[in-house]
Automatic annotation (TrEMBL):
Listed Gene3D superfamilies: nmb1532 protein domain like (1.20.120.520), Winged helix-like DNA-binding domain superfamily/Winged helix DNA-binding domain (1.10.10.10)
All residue ranges annotated as the HTH luxR-type domain in the record: 244-309
Protein name: Helix-turn-helix transcriptional regulator
PROSITE patterns: HTH_LUXR_1, HTH_LUXR_2
ATP-binding among keywords: no
CDD domains referenced in this protein's UniProt entry, alphabetically: LuxR_C_like
Keywords: DNA-binding, Transcription, Transcription regulation
Length: 318
């Protein structure tokens, strides 16, 4: 059931459950225990060491489809990662075996069609297990590495995103076969209907889980990756400048003049006219500057010029 309310930190936790009892499963995956009385969401989360912003983002998305917009910096990746890991554990170790037992009890073991249905369910369960184990073995460790400032250049979250396919096709097929073709005697009918209801709930949960990964988890990891890339570029420029200060091959006075002219936005021809040298000489100086400093971009040269007091920062167009 959709409830158009956007839940906030000062709402009572019990109200969220009253509006949607499916929230009970989410509590367990965040590691939130029951017995919180009439406390607010913020109070419960703080007492049980769960990031309130991330909890509410998942809740509002799960209950109303409201994915957070431009909120990547506020979400706790460790909290989101714990939620996804706990969701996998619950689904693989409880939900899949539970539904199989339920389905087996609702079917007649002596019926060939019933055995085929169980085989179809097992194929679906194996597909889900492979999908989730891939995330546990590759994606989650990669993210944990990022959180510990260890960047794996051989992998990124877009690699996961491109192969993050829906895995509920066999489940839809299974439901349709049971509804359309499976004969059932009266004493099994209620049990079969109850199992079908759980299969439908199972399908909805899988869709929601995939959307949380696609619309919340992947964007927040991509944002973290971009921060590392920016920091890496800055660190490289700083190391280049530091190497030059610590005894790298020094620039000549004329090369420093060329750097200043480049920072001021002059073309090769303008630099040649300004310094009364040929264009070919300017090109040679630029080649030597790049070799000595290992800096090739205008931005990098500008930083070098400012740090080494060749230009005043107030005179530079940033």
């Amino acid at each position: 059931m959709k409830n158009n309310k956007i839940y906030e930190a000062d709402d009572r936790m019990i109200s969220l459950i009253a509006d949607n009892y499916d929230m009970l499963q989410s509590l367990g995956r965040f590691g939130i225990n029951l017995g919180f009385g009439d406390k607010t969401v913020r109070e419960v989360c703080e007492e049980q060491n769960v990031d309130t912003c991330t909890f509410l983002a998942v809740v509002n998305f799960s209950m109303n489809g409201n994915a957070p917009v431009n909120d990547n910096d506020r979400l706790s990746i460790s909290t989101l990662l714990h939620y996804l890991e706990a969701s996998h554990e619950y689904y693989l170790n409880f939900e899949l075996p539970f539904i199989r037992r339920e389905l087996k009890e609702a079917l007649d073991d002596s019926d060939n069609l019933a055995r085929l249905i169980l085989r179809l369910y097992d194929e679906f369960a194996d597909e889900v297990r492979v999908h989730m184990e891939y995330e546990e073995q590759h994606v989650f460790p990669y993210v944990e590495g990022l959180l510990n400032r260890k960047v794996d250049d051989s992998y990124d979250i877009d690699t996961f995103s491109k192969h993050h396919d829906q895995i509920d096709m066999k489940l839809r097929e299974l439901k349709n076969i049971i509804i359309k073709y499976l004969p059932s005697d009266s004493h099994r009918n209620n049990q079969l209907i109850a199992t079908l209801h759980d299969l439908y709930s199972n399908e909805e949960w899988l869709k929601q889980h995939a959307r949380i990964e696609d619309e919340m988890f992947i964007p927040v990891i991509r944002n973290l990756e971009n921060k590392f890339k920016k920091n890496d570029v800055s660190a490289k420029i700083s190391r280049m400048i530091s190497r030059n200060k610590d005894g790298g091959e020094a620039l000549s006075d004329r090369e420093k003049d060329v750097v200043v002219a480049l920072v001021q936005g002059m073309t090769n021809k303008e630099i040649a006219d300004h310094l009364f040298i040929s264009v070919n000489t300017v090109i040679t100086h630029r080649r030597n500057i790049a070799r000595k400093l290992q800096i090739h971009s205008p931005a990098g040269l500008t930083i070098y010029a400012i740090v080494n007091n060749l230009v005043d920062i107030s005179s530079v167009k940033l």
